[in-house]
Amino acid sequence: DDDDDDDDDKDNLVTSSELGGAVDSYGGTDKACAAEDGEDGQDGQLLGAKATDPLLAKGEKRQIKEETAQTVSSPPLAHRSWLVTMLGMSFLIFYRGAEASMADLVFSYARRGNLNFSVSSAGLLNAMFWACFVIGRVISLPVSAVANPVLILTVNVSSMVGSMLLITWFPSSAKCLWVGVCCYGLSCAPVLPALLNFMIELVGSHDFLVSLLNMGMGIMVFPLAGGTLFDLFGPIFSMYLVLCAAIACGISFLAILLVGAAALINRPLSAAAAAAGG
Question: Exposed, middle or buried: residue 47 (CB in 10 Å: 0-12, 13-18, 19+)?
Answer without folding.
Answer: exposed
